[in-house]
Amino acid sequence: MAQKPRNADYTKEYNRKAVLRILRHNAMSRAELARTTGLTRAATSLIVEELLKLGIVTELAPQSVGWGRSATPLALRPDCYYALALDLARKGCSVGLCDMAGNLLQQRKIPNQDNLVAAIIAELKAILETAERDKILGIGISSPGPLDCENGRILNPPRFESWHGVEISQLLSEALDMPAYLEHDVCALALHQLEMGQSRNFMLVFVDIGIGAAIVSDGKLLGNSKYFTGELGHTTIRFDGRLCECGNRGCLETYASIPALLEGSEFSNWDDLIDHVGKNPEARHLLDQEAVYLSAGLINLLNLIPVDTIYLAGDICYRYELLAQRLQREISAKALDRSRGNIKIYPSSQDPNVGVLAAADVVFSKFFTV
């Protein structure tokens, strides 16, 4: 992508978005904004006055800051902008409307059916009729990969055949007359996790019937539509291993995805396995195996890109601490930097609507990017 010229208009927009990014999460006075952004107080005041006139930010009640002085905090108005969202999944999909503060205002679940694209468009149009259209920034689309995000096209995700080759961004953009942005579902989850403000250097790992990962470094999602897009499950851990649906052999997914791990065992799902760990030797063995397999893929990334936190997403979040302990042990023993063993491992957001919220954050991420 060609880099935008760094002229006066670019600088003004960059500074404006910097102020908005801060106010999205923290109310601040003009003086605090100036210190945080590094802008002069005069420049900060000009930006704030413009945003107040546009109704994008609002002033809160003055607060005492000592010696009789008071400061007026500023906050982003949640209703200043909205995003439509589409979360595509193998079990069905959901659409929704979110505001700039990350509140889910509407959600509609759509089961799999013959003409699913038409059903999605109909539901999005129904939501659009109830919203302020001029405040909607676009449509965020979250989907399993691999994807061609630049052209808004779903490529060939395993067990997602009905969506192969669908140019979903163009279809939705033309139907609703607004931009539509496609993103890998794991990358979208990482963007949402970033907005929660707990870490700016982390890896998010999603494990259920497939495996994906996304890395955020210094507050930025690594990769783009042409490069790394989350397909950790299709990295090789055994060159002569099991044949994968992608056509390669020894992919991590053929060992560490939940169906692959449980194949031939007495356990029907991950929760069932975990609930038997305390009293069943086979359950403990399979949990240990999952840590060995999964750590092999994680260490490949950790040896290249340092992070301070790993977030687990998908089925493996259930009683995550049992797997986290084993992963930390494996990483500590095998990573080039042994201090990686002290890496923090937490579950990602457990909001049941996280897929739609993450899809909306794809839109807001585009908005905040200059």
Keywords:
single chain, 370 residues, alpha/beta, five-stranded mixed β-sheet, 16 strands, globular
Describe this structure in words.
This protein is an alpha/beta fold. It contains twelve helices and 16 strands. The chain has helices spanning 8-25, 30-37, 41-53, 116-128, 168-176, 185-195, 253-256, 258-262, 270-275, 281-302, 320-334, 354-368, and strands spanning 57-59, 63-66, 69-71, 74-76, 82-89, 92-99, 104-110, 136-143, 147-148, 153-154, 180-184, 202-207, 211-217, 220-221, 309-314, 344-347. Strands 7-6-5-8-11 form a five-stranded mixed beta sheet, with helices on both faces. The protein has a five-stranded mixed beta sheet with strand order 14-13-12-15-16, with helices on both faces. A hairpin with a 4-residue loop joins strand 6 (92-99) and strand 7. Helix 6 crosses helix 12. The protein is globular.
Question: Can you describe this structure in just a few lines?
Answer:
Helix content is 38%, strand content 21%. The chain has helices at 8-25, 30-37, 41-53, 116-128, 168-176, 185-195, 253-256, 258-262, 270-275, 281-302, 320-334, 354-368, and strands at residues 57-59, 63-66, 69-71, 74-76, 82-89, 92-99, 104-110, 136-143, 147-148, 153-154, 180-184, 202-207, 211-217, 220-221, 309-314, 344-347.
